[in-house]
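Worked Example 4.2. Read the sequence first, then its structure tokens.
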Amino acid sequence: MTATLRFLLPMLGLVWLASPWCASQADAADTPAAKQPNILFIMADDHAYQAISAYPGALNKTPNIDRIANEGMRFNRCYVTNSICGPARAVILTGKYSHLNGFYQNGNRFDGSQMTYPKLLQKAGYQTAVVGKWHLETDPTGFDFWSVLRGQGPYYNPQMLTSDGPKKFEGYTTDIITDIALDWLKEKRDPNKPFLLVYQHKAPHRNWMPGPKYLNKYDDVEFPEPDTLFDDYSNRASGATNQDMTIVKTMNANDLKLTPARGLTPQQKKLWDAAYGPKNKAFEEAKLKGDALVRWKYQRYIKDYLRCIDSVDENVGRVLDYLDDEGLAENTLVMYTSDQGFYLGEHGWFDKRWMYEESFRTPLLVRWPGHVKAGTVSDALAINLDYPETILQAAGVEIPNEMQGLSLMPVLTGDGKAPADWRDSLYYHYYEFPGAHSVPRHYGVYDGRYKLIYYYQLDEWELFDLQQDPKEMVSVYGKPDYADVQAQMHEKLKELREKYQDDTPRKVAKK
């Protein structure tokens, strides 16, 4: 880009990206159009990439979510900095790792006074709104409108927190979140301003309560079991054995719908009991034990999980249809992601938290007509730290130096190909121990093939070669054949901890 053009950009209504690494990225990316795009950021909770049919080998069909991929780009290698709900959200808002944004684990309180990308968009003339799951303990800041769940929120009849006080709704939460989002789009926003809508679902978070119309879907389906369902956790660090997130032991009667559902209206309870009553009676009569019981639990779990996703997919379709019908789709950047990955029975687990692949890797689908070529796929290493920078660059807003990610715009506008100077490794750090599911604290580095993980409370290491062992069944740490790789990964880990300024002490006080 020439100096003359850089001088003229402000005269054209654009903001030059002044961050020291942004200039080269902006040169590689298409310059945003003078008309700022609308931004629709969609995030589900615990939505595994294995449960989106835009990804190969998915268990289910998600035709509306797939529209984003079919009309845009699918990222095959997108990851997270910290695989847990609240911290992931704080990272996305700030573009900073947990140790810098102050939100290490669920139960912390987000410091809403710090810089966030919605605040920067507000200053650039955007109307901003967040609807759905928030899970950051403090009230949203940087949003002109907000209607968010209290904490995790229920699947039915939620209370939504708003700037005008709490409001109670009757119905299925996934539908209600969409109703509120559409009402804001249709009735409350200024149509003469660009908008940011952060549209975030509670589903498919535990305990996976399906909506009324999907209660009996998959009753006649037997889903294939993961071939690691009965993993014995040998050949890995001790944390894999000592965790508490197995289908066989940790999944409880409430998760499995073997106890009466709570918080339902009489009509909702009638439908619920009609769906689960006969199925539960058949289970009780079968008196299953051992592996047969685990297999039944897996089927009950995966069906309920996918039923919740069916409602998410349907509601995403409602919002995409609105954009189409109102002529907004052409000038709207749409992103679909999850706050992290999730286990769908792999290694006998549910939940997330680990740097292992199913937890560490998250879906990312992006659509922006005229900028992102339809149907493209990228293998560039991406991370949720990159989302705010991407949004800001698309909007023509200066990216603050304190943000630690990379704008994905060069990848998006480059048919999925990463620039020559793109990152070659990713850094991860998980803190929530002691805590739910007993996953030990750990940090690590991943370079697209090798993954080095350090469990610092245990002083144990793992090294995986995902080309030879994609399911991460055998750590090769300490094996002579991998001595050179191990040394190289240690050096990369040291470099990334210094780059991201992570000198976090081993004990992190809960705030």
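Now turn to a second chain, presented in exactly the same format:
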Amino acid sequence: MPYRQLPQIQDLHRRFLDRLQHAQDDKEPRGLYEPIEYILSIGGKRVRPLLALIAARMFGDGEGLRAGMPVAMAVEVFHNFTLLHDDIMDESPLRRGQPTVHRKWDTNTAILSGDLMLIQAYGHLAESADPSRIPVLLNTFNRVATGVCEGQQFDVDFERKHHVTIEEYLRMIELKTAVLLGGALEMGALAAGAGQEDADHLYAFGRLTGLAFQLHDDLLDTFGEGAETGKLTGNDIIRNKKTFLYIKTLEALDAGEREELVHWFSHTPEDPAPKVARVTEMMRLRGIPELVAELRDDFQRDAYDHLEAVTGDSGWKAVLRAVAEGLLQRAS
């Protein structure tokens, strides 16, 4: 059964949306709050708040939902804050198929509403059911949020760098994507009274699952079926993104082919089909898709080892494992 069809997930999702949909009600000025309401309402998988709520239920029994909801709200508002500002930086016209905030309103509005979202994220954490837990939640959130910003800057830097190493790329995706997944689990558990050792194992599970997910996403972008993944196949190649596949291919090529690959990634032809075809051929001939899949699976095996070490409720551990498996079972 897909994890979103699990009754536990459906219940958590419904309760979270009930809370999220009314978070900006009756707040003025509307020109500040409507953009926040808008970006929070246009979809998304809501994986991060679900992870926070699952971790809280794992340790909080019947009180887990109450303990985990402030964390769920904080990580979702923070995540969308980063998307809002990323869209400004990237000059993106669309987010989840809808106009971005800076296009629907204007850049100044988007910046100010984004700033307020970050403040709101801290406000949600301060609503913790157990006030004694607020300091550790704030410290954890600060660590994770700093990592996300560092990851975004690394990503920006990579666009200008001629040479990016595998280690640098993995560090970038760890910070930009994986640490917030891990942080949602860690904070959800801590909010519900878990010990630091269990919270650390959950953080590691989320971080490693995030790394596996991003590698899987890179693989699907280049070799997945576009109609099934919902993406344009080869979009990373078209946009000259230095993904794991590109870096690993560059390492494996001889000097002549390396020069050819660098040339392909130095421009964007009007018709990208020949570029995508040639680059994917170079990747296949060097066995790069198989190498990426192997590393993805290694990360996920390590993640499950950490989940096994967690002492929380076994039923909710099974739900968490189902979520991870669902993230990695999209069309390939």
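Notes for the reader: The first strand starts at residue 94 and ends at 95. DSSP finds 16 helices and two strands in the chain.
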